[in-house]
Amino acid sequence: MAKRVAVIGAGVSGLSSIKCCLDEDLEPICFERSSDIGGLWKFTETSKDGMTRVYKSLVTNVCKEMSCYSDFPFQEDYPNFMNQEKFWNYLQEFAEYFDLLKYIRFKTTVRSITKRPDFSETGQWDVVTETEGRQDRAVFDAVMVCTGHFLNPHLPLESFPGIHKFKGQILHSQEYKIPAGFQGKRVLVIGLGNTGADIAVELSRTAAQVLLSTRTGTWVINRSSDGGYPFNMMVLRRHHNFIAQVLPSCILKWIQERRLNKRFDHVNYGLNITKGKKPKMIVNDELPTCILCGTVTIKTSLKEFTETSAVFEDGTVEENIDAVIFTTGYTYSFPFFEEPLKTLCTKKIFLYKLVFPSNLEKTTLAMIGFIHLTGSILAGTELQARWATRVFKGLCKIPPSQKLMAEAMKKEQLIESKKRREVFVSSSPSLLKYLSYRTSCVRLAGSG
Ligand SMILES: Cc1cc2nc3c(=O)[nH]c(=O)nc-3n(C[C@H](O)[C@H](O)[C@H](O)COP(=O)(O)OP(=O)(O)OC[C@H]3O[C@@H](n4cnc5c(N)ncnc54)[C@H](O)[C@@H]3O)c2cc1C
Ligand SMILES: NC(=O)c1ccc[n+]([C@@H]2O[C@H](COP(=O)([O-])OP(=O)(O)OC[C@H]3O[C@@H](n4cnc5c(N)ncnc54)[C@H](OP(=O)(O)O)[C@@H]3O)[C@@H](O)[C@H]2O)c1
Protein backbone atom coordinates (compact mmCIF):
# COMPACT_ATOMS: atom_id res chain seq x y z
CA MET A 1 0.00 0.00 0.00
CA ALA A 2 1.32 3.50 -0.88
CA LYS A 3 2.44 5.61 2.03
CA ARG A 4 0.21 8.57 2.90
CA VAL A 5 2.12 11.84 3.18
CA ALA A 6 0.74 15.06 4.68
CA VAL A 7 2.14 18.16 2.96
CA ILE A 8 1.58 21.35 4.98
CA GLY A 9 1.34 24.44 2.75
CA ALA A 10 0.84 24.85 -1.00
CA GLY A 11 3.48 27.46 -1.80
CA VAL A 12 6.59 26.89 -3.92
CA SER A 13 7.85 24.24 -1.44
CA GLY A 14 4.49 22.52 -1.03
CA LEU A 15 3.95 22.22 -4.80
CA SER A 16 7.45 20.68 -5.22
CA SER A 17 6.65 18.27 -2.42
CA ILE A 18 3.31 17.10 -3.83
CA LYS A 19 4.94 16.52 -7.24
CA CYS A 20 7.87 14.58 -5.75
CA CYS A 21 5.50 12.40 -3.69
CA LEU A 22 3.64 11.50 -6.89
CA ASP A 23 6.94 10.78 -8.69
CA GLU A 24 7.72 8.23 -5.95
CA ASP A 25 4.19 6.70 -5.96
CA LEU A 26 3.42 8.10 -2.53
CA GLU A 27 -0.05 9.42 -1.66
CA PRO A 28 0.14 13.15 -0.83
CA ILE A 29 -2.60 15.17 0.82
CA CYS A 30 -1.74 18.86 1.03
CA PHE A 31 -3.35 21.17 3.59
CA GLU A 32 -3.37 24.87 2.73
CA ARG A 33 -4.88 27.41 5.11
CA SER A 34 -5.64 29.99 2.37
CA SER A 35 -7.93 29.50 -0.60
CA ASP A 36 -5.25 29.35 -3.30
CA ILE A 37 -1.86 27.99 -4.25
CA GLY A 38 1.42 29.92 -4.44
CA GLY A 39 1.90 30.90 -0.79
CA LEU A 40 3.43 34.36 -0.57
CA TRP A 41 3.29 34.80 -4.36
CA LYS A 42 -0.52 35.12 -4.33
CA PHE A 43 -1.10 38.86 -4.23
CA THR A 44 -4.04 40.17 -2.20
CA GLU A 45 -5.15 43.77 -1.74
CA THR A 46 -4.94 43.59 2.06
CA SER A 47 -3.02 41.62 4.66
CA LYS A 48 -6.00 41.20 6.98
CA ASP A 49 -5.56 37.43 7.00
CA GLY A 50 -2.10 37.93 8.61
CA MET A 51 -0.33 36.12 5.78
CA THR A 52 2.96 37.37 4.36
CA ARG A 53 2.55 38.00 0.65
CA VAL A 54 4.21 39.97 -2.12
CA TYR A 55 3.55 43.68 -2.63
CA LYS A 56 2.09 44.74 -5.99
CA SER A 57 5.30 46.05 -7.58
CA LEU A 58 7.48 43.05 -6.67
CA VAL A 59 9.70 41.67 -9.41
CA THR A 60 11.67 38.42 -9.01
CA ASN A 61 15.35 38.77 -8.14
CA VAL A 62 16.45 35.51 -9.80
CA CYS A 63 16.07 35.27 -13.59
CA LYS A 64 13.75 32.72 -15.19
CA GLU A 65 16.65 30.75 -16.65
CA MET A 66 17.81 29.95 -13.11
CA SER A 67 14.39 29.80 -11.42
CA CYS A 68 12.21 27.07 -12.86
CA TYR A 69 11.37 23.60 -11.57
CA SER A 70 13.66 21.14 -13.35
CA ASP A 71 11.01 19.62 -15.62
CA PHE A 72 8.90 22.71 -16.27
CA PRO A 73 10.67 25.64 -17.97
CA PHE A 74 9.03 29.06 -18.16
CA GLN A 75 7.24 29.84 -21.41
CA GLU A 76 9.37 31.55 -24.06
CA ASP A 77 7.44 34.83 -23.88
CA TYR A 78 7.93 35.26 -20.13
CA PRO A 79 10.44 38.05 -19.38
CA ASN A 80 13.75 37.18 -17.74
CA PHE A 81 12.70 38.77 -14.46
CA MET A 82 8.96 38.78 -13.91
CA ASN A 83 6.42 40.56 -11.79
CA GLN A 84 4.62 38.70 -9.03
CA GLU A 85 1.54 38.06 -11.18
CA LYS A 86 3.52 36.30 -13.92
CA PHE A 87 5.46 34.27 -11.37
CA TRP A 88 2.22 33.17 -9.73
CA ASN A 89 0.86 32.24 -13.22
CA TYR A 90 3.88 30.00 -13.66
CA LEU A 91 3.12 28.21 -10.39
CA GLN A 92 -0.51 27.80 -11.47
CA GLU A 93 0.58 26.39 -14.85
CA PHE A 94 2.94 23.97 -13.06
CA ALA A 95 0.17 22.82 -10.70
CA GLU A 96 -2.30 22.34 -13.56
CA TYR A 97 0.16 20.61 -15.90
CA PHE A 98 1.04 17.97 -13.28
CA ASP A 99 -2.55 17.83 -12.00
CA LEU A 100 -1.56 18.75 -8.45
CA LEU A 101 -4.65 20.77 -7.46
CA LYS A 102 -6.76 17.71 -6.68
CA TYR A 103 -4.39 16.79 -3.85
CA ILE A 104 -4.81 20.14 -2.06
CA ARG A 105 -7.41 20.83 0.65
CA PHE A 106 -7.82 24.59 0.73
CA LYS A 107 -8.99 26.68 3.70
CA THR A 108 -7.60 23.93 5.91
CA THR A 109 -5.21 24.86 8.70
CA VAL A 110 -3.02 22.26 10.36
CA ARG A 111 -3.48 22.67 14.11
CA SER A 112 -1.33 19.85 15.46
CA ILE A 113 1.13 17.22 14.30
CA THR A 114 1.93 14.65 17.00
CA LYS A 115 3.70 11.30 17.06
CA ARG A 116 1.38 8.26 17.23
CA PRO A 117 1.81 6.14 20.41
CA ASP A 118 3.55 3.46 18.28
CA PHE A 119 5.79 6.02 16.50
CA SER A 120 9.02 4.20 17.33
CA GLU A 121 7.83 1.24 15.23
CA THR A 122 5.57 2.85 12.59
CA GLY A 123 6.94 6.41 12.31
CA GLN A 124 3.32 7.56 11.91
CA TRP A 125 1.85 10.97 12.78
CA ASP A 126 -1.54 12.19 13.95
CA VAL A 127 -2.48 15.32 12.06
CA VAL A 128 -5.33 17.53 13.28
CA THR A 129 -6.73 20.03 10.76
CA GLU A 130 -9.40 22.68 10.90
CA THR A 131 -11.60 23.60 7.95
CA GLU A 132 -14.08 26.44 8.51
CA GLY A 133 -14.41 25.62 12.22
CA ARG A 134 -14.63 21.83 11.79
CA GLN A 135 -11.77 19.72 13.15
CA ASP A 136 -10.55 16.47 11.57
CA ARG A 137 -7.91 14.00 12.63
CA ALA A 138 -6.04 11.66 10.30
CA VAL A 139 -3.05 9.33 10.44
CA PHE A 140 -0.11 9.83 8.06
CA ASP A 141 2.97 7.74 7.36
CA ALA A 142 5.07 10.86 6.78
CA VAL A 143 4.82 14.66 6.95
CA MET A 144 6.44 17.39 4.82
CA VAL A 145 6.36 20.82 6.48
CA CYS A 146 6.30 23.55 3.79
CA THR A 147 5.01 26.51 5.78
CA GLY A 148 7.77 28.95 4.74
CA HIS A 149 10.32 31.24 6.32
CA PHE A 150 8.09 34.28 6.53
CA LEU A 151 5.31 33.35 8.94
CA ASN A 152 5.55 36.19 11.47
CA PRO A 153 6.64 39.81 10.95
CA HIS A 154 9.78 40.69 12.93
CA LEU A 155 8.87 44.02 14.54
CA PRO A 156 11.64 44.85 17.06
CA LEU A 157 9.92 47.90 18.63
CA GLU A 158 11.71 47.33 21.96
CA SER A 159 15.04 48.14 20.20
CA PHE A 160 13.81 51.66 19.40
CA PRO A 161 13.61 53.95 22.47
CA GLY A 162 10.77 56.43 22.28
CA ILE A 163 8.82 54.54 19.59
CA HIS A 164 5.75 54.44 21.86
CA LYS A 165 5.78 58.26 22.03
CA PHE A 166 5.95 58.58 18.24
CA LYS A 167 2.67 59.99 16.91
CA GLY A 168 2.97 59.10 13.22
CA GLN A 169 1.92 55.93 11.41
CA ILE A 170 3.88 52.74 12.19
CA LEU A 171 3.66 49.61 10.08
CA HIS A 172 5.59 46.48 9.11
CA SER A 173 6.28 45.71 5.45
CA GLN A 174 3.93 42.72 5.73
CA GLU A 175 1.11 45.32 5.61
CA TYR A 176 2.60 47.21 2.66
CA LYS A 177 0.90 46.55 -0.69
CA ILE A 178 0.93 49.74 -2.79
CA PRO A 179 2.35 53.28 -2.39
CA ALA A 180 -1.10 54.91 -2.04
CA GLY A 181 -1.44 56.81 1.21
CA PHE A 182 2.18 57.96 1.37
CA GLN A 183 2.00 60.76 -1.21
CA GLY A 184 3.65 63.95 -0.02
CA LYS A 185 4.72 62.37 3.29
CA ARG A 186 8.09 62.09 4.98
CA VAL A 187 8.60 58.37 5.36
CA LEU A 188 11.28 56.57 7.34
CA VAL A 189 12.03 53.00 6.21
CA ILE A 190 13.97 50.94 8.80
CA GLY A 191 15.99 47.92 7.59
CA LEU A 192 17.91 47.51 4.36
CA GLY A 193 17.07 44.12 2.89
CA ASN A 194 15.45 43.60 -0.52
CA THR A 195 12.09 44.74 0.84
CA GLY A 196 13.44 47.93 2.43
CA ALA A 197 15.19 48.95 -0.79
CA ASP A 198 12.15 48.14 -2.99
CA ILE A 199 9.72 50.06 -0.78
CA ALA A 200 12.06 53.05 -0.40
CA VAL A 201 12.52 53.28 -4.18
CA GLU A 202 8.82 52.91 -4.88
CA LEU A 203 7.78 55.54 -2.33
CA SER A 204 10.47 57.95 -3.50
CA ARG A 205 8.36 58.62 -6.61
CA THR A 206 5.47 60.13 -4.66
CA ALA A 207 6.55 60.81 -1.07
CA ALA A 208 7.97 64.18 -0.04
CA GLN A 209 11.11 62.43 1.22
CA VAL A 210 12.19 58.88 1.96
CA LEU A 211 14.80 58.16 4.63
CA LEU A 212 16.28 54.68 4.66
CA SER A 213 17.99 53.59 7.88
CA THR A 214 20.52 50.76 7.89
CA ARG A 215 22.63 49.29 10.68
CA THR A 216 24.84 47.24 8.41
CA GLY A 217 24.87 48.61 4.87
CA THR A 218 24.72 46.24 1.95
CA TRP A 219 26.16 45.42 -1.44
CA VAL A 220 23.68 46.37 -4.16
CA ILE A 221 23.62 44.46 -7.41
CA ASN A 222 21.76 45.00 -10.67
CA ARG A 223 19.46 42.52 -12.35
CA SER A 224 21.45 42.93 -15.58
CA SER A 225 25.15 42.23 -15.87
CA ASP A 226 27.88 42.33 -18.51
CA GLY A 227 26.44 42.53 -22.03
CA GLY A 228 22.95 42.97 -20.52
CA TYR A 229 22.66 39.33 -19.46
CA PRO A 230 20.84 38.54 -16.19
CA PHE A 231 23.43 38.65 -13.43
CA ASN A 232 22.52 35.25 -11.95
CA MET A 233 23.21 33.65 -15.32
CA MET A 234 26.65 35.22 -15.40
CA VAL A 235 27.57 34.65 -11.76
CA LEU A 236 26.12 31.27 -10.79
CA ARG A 237 28.53 29.21 -12.86
CA ARG A 238 30.64 26.17 -12.15
CA HIS A 239 33.89 27.87 -13.11
CA HIS A 240 33.11 30.78 -10.74
CA ASN A 241 32.52 28.26 -7.95
CA PHE A 242 35.80 26.57 -8.78
CA ILE A 243 37.70 29.88 -8.70
CA ALA A 244 36.04 30.77 -5.40
CA GLN A 245 37.20 27.47 -3.92
CA VAL A 246 40.83 27.73 -4.98
CA LEU A 247 41.52 31.44 -4.33
CA PRO A 248 42.52 32.59 -0.83
CA SER A 249 39.49 34.27 0.74
CA CYS A 250 41.18 37.69 1.12
CA ILE A 251 42.00 37.82 -2.62
CA LEU A 252 38.51 36.66 -3.54
CA LYS A 253 37.02 39.36 -1.26
CA TRP A 254 39.25 42.00 -2.87
CA ILE A 255 38.19 40.98 -6.40
CA GLN A 256 34.50 40.86 -5.49
CA GLU A 257 34.54 44.22 -3.70
CA ARG A 258 36.42 45.86 -6.57
CA ARG A 259 33.82 44.57 -9.01
CA LEU A 260 30.87 45.60 -6.82
CA ASN A 261 32.30 49.09 -6.35
CA LYS A 262 32.89 49.52 -10.09
CA ARG A 263 29.25 50.49 -10.74
CA PHE A 264 29.21 52.90 -7.79
CA ASP A 265 31.38 53.29 -4.74
CA HIS A 266 29.32 51.97 -1.84
CA VAL A 267 31.17 54.16 0.69
CA ASN A 268 30.17 57.35 -1.17
CA TYR A 269 26.55 56.23 -1.12
CA GLY A 270 26.53 55.41 2.62
CA LEU A 271 25.91 51.75 1.85
CA ASN A 272 29.26 50.22 2.81
CA ILE A 273 29.15 47.24 5.17
CA THR A 274 29.75 48.33 8.77
CA LYS A 275 33.08 47.02 10.10
CA GLY A 276 32.76 43.65 11.78
CA LYS A 277 29.29 42.92 10.31
CA LYS A 278 28.55 40.02 8.00
CA PRO A 279 28.37 41.28 4.39
CA LYS A 280 25.00 40.98 2.68
CA MET A 281 23.69 41.65 -0.78
CA ILE A 282 20.46 42.91 -2.27
CA VAL A 283 19.18 43.23 -5.82
CA ASN A 284 18.02 46.70 -6.78
CA ASP A 285 18.41 48.54 -10.06
CA GLU A 286 17.23 51.98 -8.92
CA LEU A 287 18.42 52.57 -5.37
CA PRO A 288 21.79 54.14 -6.32
CA THR A 289 20.05 56.57 -8.69
CA CYS A 290 17.48 57.52 -6.04
CA ILE A 291 20.34 58.25 -3.62
CA LEU A 292 22.13 60.24 -6.30
CA CYS A 293 18.99 62.30 -6.97
CA GLY A 294 18.27 62.78 -3.26
CA THR A 295 14.83 61.15 -3.32
CA VAL A 296 16.14 58.49 -0.92
CA THR A 297 18.48 59.54 1.88
CA ILE A 298 20.52 56.84 3.57
CA LYS A 299 20.66 57.15 7.35
CA THR A 300 22.65 55.30 10.01
CA SER A 301 20.92 53.18 12.63
CA LEU A 302 18.37 54.81 14.83
CA LYS A 303 19.04 56.05 18.35
CA GLU A 304 15.58 57.14 19.41
CA PHE A 305 12.22 58.55 18.44
CA THR A 306 10.49 61.62 19.78
CA GLU A 307 6.82 62.41 19.13
CA THR A 308 7.53 63.62 15.60
CA SER A 309 11.19 63.09 14.83
CA ALA A 310 13.91 60.46 14.58
CA VAL A 311 17.38 60.81 16.09
CA PHE A 312 20.13 58.78 14.44
CA GLU A 313 23.36 57.30 15.83
CA ASP A 314 25.49 59.81 13.88
CA GLY A 315 23.78 62.64 15.77
CA THR A 316 21.56 63.83 12.90
CA VAL A 317 17.88 64.50 13.57
CA GLU A 318 15.07 64.22 11.02
CA GLU A 319 12.00 66.24 11.96
CA ASN A 320 8.35 65.83 10.97
CA ILE A 321 8.33 62.14 10.16
CA ASP A 322 4.83 61.10 9.07
CA ALA A 323 5.28 57.34 8.81
CA VAL A 324 7.75 54.63 9.81
CA ILE A 325 7.84 51.37 7.86
CA PHE A 326 9.71 48.52 9.51
CA THR A 327 11.22 46.38 6.77
CA THR A 328 12.98 44.29 9.37
CA GLY A 329 12.20 40.85 7.99
CA TYR A 330 10.36 37.86 9.37
CA THR A 331 10.61 34.98 11.80
CA TYR A 332 9.16 31.51 11.53
CA SER A 333 7.77 29.00 13.97
CA PHE A 334 6.01 25.67 14.09
CA PRO A 335 2.96 26.18 16.31
CA PHE A 336 1.55 22.77 15.40
CA PHE A 337 4.42 20.75 16.96
CA GLU A 338 4.80 19.70 20.58
CA GLU A 339 7.98 20.37 22.54
CA PRO A 340 10.83 19.49 22.17
CA LEU A 341 10.25 19.23 18.39
CA LYS A 342 8.77 22.75 18.24
CA THR A 343 11.98 24.41 19.48
CA LEU A 344 14.39 21.96 17.92
CA CYS A 345 13.08 22.62 14.40
CA THR A 346 13.77 26.36 14.72
CA LYS A 347 17.48 25.58 15.25
CA LYS A 348 18.77 24.74 11.82
CA ILE A 349 21.77 23.02 13.32
CA PHE A 350 19.43 20.28 14.53
CA LEU A 351 18.05 19.67 11.03
CA TYR A 352 20.16 17.11 9.20
CA LYS A 353 21.08 18.74 5.86
CA LEU A 354 18.45 21.38 6.79
CA VAL A 355 15.67 18.82 6.23
CA PHE A 356 15.41 16.02 8.84
CA PRO A 357 15.04 16.80 12.59
CA SER A 358 17.90 14.98 14.33
CA ASN A 359 15.95 13.77 17.36
CA LEU A 360 13.47 11.42 15.68
CA GLU A 361 13.80 7.63 15.79
CA LYS A 362 12.06 7.43 12.40
CA THR A 363 12.85 9.62 9.41
CA THR A 364 9.24 10.41 8.52
CA LEU A 365 9.28 14.18 9.01
CA ALA A 366 10.90 16.54 6.50
CA MET A 367 11.19 20.32 6.60
CA ILE A 368 11.14 21.68 3.04
CA GLY A 369 12.13 25.22 2.02
CA PHE A 370 13.86 26.43 5.20
CA ILE A 371 16.86 27.57 3.20
CA HIS A 372 18.41 30.82 1.98
CA LEU A 373 20.08 30.32 -1.37
CA THR A 374 22.18 32.47 -3.65
CA GLY A 375 19.99 31.28 -6.50
CA SER A 376 16.31 30.46 -6.77
CA ILE A 377 14.51 28.61 -4.04
CA LEU A 378 12.58 26.48 -6.56
CA ALA A 379 15.56 24.32 -7.46
CA GLY A 380 16.52 23.99 -3.80
CA THR A 381 13.09 22.90 -2.59
CA GLU A 382 12.76 20.44 -5.46
CA LEU A 383 16.04 18.76 -4.53
CA GLN A 384 15.04 18.63 -0.87
CA ALA A 385 11.63 17.15 -1.70
CA ARG A 386 13.12 14.55 -4.08
CA TRP A 387 15.53 13.40 -1.39
CA ALA A 388 12.93 13.42 1.41
CA THR A 389 10.43 11.32 -0.54
CA ARG A 390 13.17 8.79 -1.34
CA VAL A 391 14.05 8.62 2.35
CA PHE A 392 10.35 8.04 3.21
CA LYS A 393 10.31 5.18 0.72
CA GLY A 394 13.44 3.63 2.19
CA LEU A 395 15.49 4.21 -1.00
CA CYS A 396 17.93 6.52 0.81
CA LYS A 397 19.13 6.21 4.38
CA ILE A 398 20.24 8.84 6.85
CA PRO A 399 22.45 8.26 9.91
CA PRO A 400 20.77 7.19 13.18
CA SER A 401 19.26 9.81 15.48
CA GLN A 402 21.84 9.33 18.31
CA LYS A 403 24.70 10.10 15.93
CA LEU A 404 22.91 13.14 14.44
CA MET A 405 22.06 14.54 17.88
CA ALA A 406 25.64 14.07 19.12
CA GLU A 407 27.01 15.90 16.06
CA ALA A 408 24.46 18.71 16.32
CA MET A 409 25.16 19.22 20.02
CA LYS A 410 28.90 19.32 19.37
CA LYS A 411 28.36 21.98 16.68
CA GLU A 412 26.11 23.95 19.03
CA GLN A 413 28.80 23.90 21.74
CA LEU A 414 31.42 25.08 19.25
CA ILE A 415 29.20 27.96 18.17
CA GLU A 416 28.49 28.89 21.79
CA SER A 417 32.20 28.92 22.70
CA LYS A 418 32.96 31.01 19.57
CA LYS A 419 30.27 33.50 20.64
CA ARG A 420 31.72 33.63 24.15
CA ARG A 421 35.21 34.28 22.70
CA GLU A 422 33.80 37.11 20.55
CA VAL A 423 32.08 38.71 23.55
CA PHE A 424 35.35 38.42 25.50
CA VAL A 425 37.36 40.03 22.68
CA SER A 426 34.84 42.85 22.17
CA SER A 427 34.77 43.57 25.90
CA SER A 428 38.54 43.28 26.25
CA PRO A 429 39.40 47.00 25.77
CA SER A 430 37.57 47.86 29.00
CA LEU A 431 38.86 44.68 30.59
CA LEU A 432 42.44 45.65 29.68
CA LYS A 433 41.83 49.17 31.02
CA TYR A 434 40.56 47.66 34.28
CA LEU A 435 43.54 45.30 34.54
CA SER A 436 46.05 48.07 33.88
CA TYR A 437 44.25 50.25 36.47
CA ARG A 438 44.50 47.38 39.00
CA THR A 439 48.19 46.91 38.16
CA SER A 440 48.95 50.61 38.63
CA CYS A 441 47.05 50.58 41.96
CA VAL A 442 49.10 47.58 43.09
CA ARG A 443 52.30 49.34 41.93
CA LEU A 444 51.32 52.54 43.79
CA ALA A 445 50.43 50.54 46.89
CA GLY A 446 53.79 48.76 46.61
CA SER A 447 55.73 52.00 46.22
CA GLY A 448 53.83 53.60 49.15
C1 LIG B 1 8.66 39.56 -0.51
C2 LIG B 1 9.43 38.31 -0.92
C3 LIG B 1 9.99 38.22 -2.20
C4 LIG B 1 10.72 37.08 -2.58
N1 LIG B 1 11.27 37.03 -3.84
C5 LIG B 1 11.96 35.93 -4.23
C6 LIG B 1 12.50 35.83 -5.56
O1 LIG B 1 12.41 36.75 -6.35
N2 LIG B 1 13.15 34.69 -5.90
C7 LIG B 1 13.27 33.64 -5.03
O2 LIG B 1 13.84 32.62 -5.39
N3 LIG B 1 12.77 33.73 -3.77
C8 LIG B 1 12.14 34.83 -3.36
N4 LIG B 1 11.61 34.91 -2.09
C9 LIG B 1 11.85 33.80 -1.17
C10 LIG B 1 10.62 32.90 -0.96
O3 LIG B 1 10.95 32.21 0.20
C11 LIG B 1 10.35 31.88 -2.04
O4 LIG B 1 10.23 32.48 -3.29
C12 LIG B 1 9.09 31.02 -1.84
O5 LIG B 1 7.92 31.73 -2.12
C13 LIG B 1 8.94 30.34 -0.51
O6 LIG B 1 7.93 29.37 -0.67
P1 LIG B 1 7.42 28.43 0.51
O7 LIG B 1 6.45 27.51 -0.11
O8 LIG B 1 8.57 27.83 1.21
O9 LIG B 1 6.72 29.41 1.54
P2 LIG B 1 5.39 30.31 1.38
O10 LIG B 1 5.29 30.88 0.03
O11 LIG B 1 5.39 31.24 2.53
O12 LIG B 1 4.19 29.25 1.53
C14 LIG B 1 3.86 28.66 2.75
C15 LIG B 1 2.41 28.18 2.66
O13 LIG B 1 2.11 27.44 3.84
C16 LIG B 1 0.79 27.78 4.26
N5 LIG B 1 0.67 27.50 5.71
C17 LIG B 1 1.40 28.03 6.72
N6 LIG B 1 1.03 27.50 7.90
C18 LIG B 1 0.04 26.61 7.63
C19 LIG B 1 -0.75 25.73 8.44
N7 LIG B 1 -0.60 25.65 9.77
N8 LIG B 1 -1.68 24.96 7.82
C20 LIG B 1 -1.86 25.02 6.48
N9 LIG B 1 -1.15 25.83 5.67
C21 LIG B 1 -0.21 26.60 6.24
C22 LIG B 1 0.66 29.26 3.93
O14 LIG B 1 -0.70 29.64 3.83
C23 LIG B 1 1.40 29.33 2.59
O15 LIG B 1 0.56 29.15 1.50
C24 LIG B 1 10.89 36.02 -1.67
C25 LIG B 1 10.34 36.13 -0.39
C26 LIG B 1 9.63 37.27 -0.02
C27 LIG B 1 9.05 37.37 1.39
N1 LIG C 1 12.27 39.46 -5.39
C1 LIG C 1 12.72 40.47 -4.73
O1 LIG C 1 13.28 41.37 -5.30
C2 LIG C 1 12.53 40.51 -3.25
C3 LIG C 1 11.98 41.65 -2.67
C4 LIG C 1 11.77 41.66 -1.31
C5 LIG C 1 12.16 40.59 -0.53
N2 LIG C 1 12.72 39.49 -1.11
C6 LIG C 1 13.15 38.33 -0.27
O2 LIG C 1 12.27 38.24 0.83
C7 LIG C 1 12.96 37.80 1.99
C8 LIG C 1 12.74 38.79 3.13
O3 LIG C 1 13.37 40.05 2.80
P1 LIG C 1 13.25 41.33 3.75
O4 LIG C 1 14.01 42.41 3.13
O5 LIG C 1 11.81 41.55 4.08
O6 LIG C 1 13.91 40.85 5.13
P2 LIG C 1 15.47 40.58 5.46
O7 LIG C 1 16.19 40.12 4.27
O8 LIG C 1 15.48 39.71 6.67
O9 LIG C 1 16.05 42.02 5.83
C9 LIG C 1 15.63 42.70 6.97
C10 LIG C 1 16.63 43.79 7.31
O10 LIG C 1 16.14 44.49 8.45
C11 LIG C 1 17.22 44.97 9.21
N3 LIG C 1 16.94 44.66 10.61
C12 LIG C 1 16.57 43.48 11.16
N4 LIG C 1 16.40 43.61 12.49
C13 LIG C 1 16.64 44.90 12.79
C14 LIG C 1 16.65 45.65 14.00
N5 LIG C 1 16.37 45.10 15.17
N6 LIG C 1 16.97 46.95 13.93
C15 LIG C 1 17.28 47.54 12.75
N7 LIG C 1 17.30 46.87 11.57
C16 LIG C 1 16.99 45.58 11.60
C17 LIG C 1 18.51 44.35 8.67
O11 LIG C 1 19.14 45.29 7.82
P3 LIG C 1 20.20 46.38 8.32
O12 LIG C 1 20.98 45.75 9.44
O13 LIG C 1 21.03 46.72 7.16
O14 LIG C 1 19.39 47.55 8.76
C18 LIG C 1 18.01 43.27 7.73
O15 LIG C 1 18.83 43.08 6.64
C19 LIG C 1 14.42 37.66 1.57
O16 LIG C 1 14.64 36.31 1.23
C20 LIG C 1 14.51 38.52 0.32
O17 LIG C 1 15.52 38.10 -0.57
C21 LIG C 1 12.93 39.44 -2.45
From TrEMBL:
Major subcellular location class: endoplasmic reticulum
Keywords: Endoplasmic reticulum, FAD, Flavoprotein, Monooxygenase, NADP, Oxidoreductase
GO molecular function: monooxygenase activity
The UniProt record lists the keyword Isomerase: no
EC number: 1.-.-.-
Essential cofactor(s): FAD
Subcellular location: Endoplasmic reticulum membrane
Family indicated by similarity: Belongs to the FMO family.
Protein's name according to its UniProt entry: Flavin-containing monooxygenase
Organism expressing this protein natively: Odocoileus virginianus
Taxonomic path: Eukaryota, Metazoa, Chordata, Craniata, Vertebrata
